[in-house]
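re: that chain from earlier
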Amino acid sequence: MTERERDTDVVVAGAGAAGLAAAIRAADGGARVALLEASSTFRQGSNTSMSTSMVPVGGSRWQEELGIVDDSPDVLFDDIMAKSKGAADPVVARALVDVGRDLSEFLADDCEVPLELLTDAVFPGHSHKRHLCVHDRAGRTMHRHLLEAADKRDDLTTIIPLRVVDLEQLDDGWLVRAESPDGTEQEIVTGSVVLATNGFGANPERVARHIPEVRDGLYFGGDHSLGDALDIGERLGADVGFLDSYQGHGSVATPHGVLVTWTTMMNGAFLVNANGERFGDETTGYSEFGVQVLAQPDAVAWLIYDETVHERALPFDDYQQLIEADGIRWAADAVSLAALIGCDEAAITNTLASVSAYTSGAETDPLGRTLWPHALETPIAAVKVTGALFHTQGGLSVDGNANVLRNGEPIPGLYAAGGAAAGISGNGAAGYLSGNGLLSALGLGFIAGRTITGG
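^ sequence. v structure.
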């Protein structure tokens, strides 16, 4: 094509956590940035807004302020590799743990996101309390702060709705083809492109092809996570990786469609199926429990806990939504709990007795759970839950600078972040470590923006 003057320095596709981090950091580095978002409802319906805002950082200033001085990027890296059984991409994992402190201070100081250290629980696979989050543990609150930060940047223009549909590599940059919902097409010439359009969780064909084990599960993520970055990247011959990797979840209240925080499990809750029987060690991780719940009768389970656990879950915005939706049922004893679940009274009585024995140390849980913080007390809370796919963790292969790779080499000026990029969870669902999604989104976005501007 005839050479054209650049319309902007950077085009960022997607205004979730990844895209906003990239756009803001690039603008702060002196670039003119166009941030394109395909969905007009992205503030409510993106994976960022539906998250719990938790980002794991090893060796943050928030930890230091509370006297946690034995955590570090190295320790977090080891936890990531252990959870993924060594399968996570070590280059990307290393880049993300190393950028954690700079990222967290960028969020707090430059973007004015009011971060705090979550101290309620240590999540499965994490050796330290290291998750940074906003006070209500609501992704939409973090998202709102990032959007407000973007609005304050004079060289950052946000265009909604406008979907990036294709890219053409030029001699010194990229031709971006974008499309409005009414079919109007637009071309933008830019020096660099950041693909931050999330994964492919909302694309049933890709889910069935790459992660068939959850093809019939509930999808609990952004409706525009259609695999746009993968489609574009594959046409360019880009490398892809870990397409079978995803974050699942084993406790989405049904039929309410509200996430029940897994901090309940780490504080003593447990799951039983429709027969009143436990079926796994709930503390191994919420991601792998999505499939386990789906494998139970009617693809449901019941989350069982008491007032102590209830109190510890109250700070989570999602849990407040569950209360408002009247999703919690309380039972005075085993008899009423059996009636609530619809199971045999003897079965749930036996399960409760077993849990009591595990808690006291009189018996060892044959399913392998060792974390039983306190004895279950009446009344007993019960929430009907199902398993879900939250977001995919595979995508375009990137290096430690968030550069998309082709035949193992960086494609000049092309970057990917968040669900658009291959993450750090290895294969399947079991390698997902709590916070991997937002760490990959914010971390790779920040790295991309910094790399583009030479920061």
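Residues 90-110 form the longest helix (21 residues).
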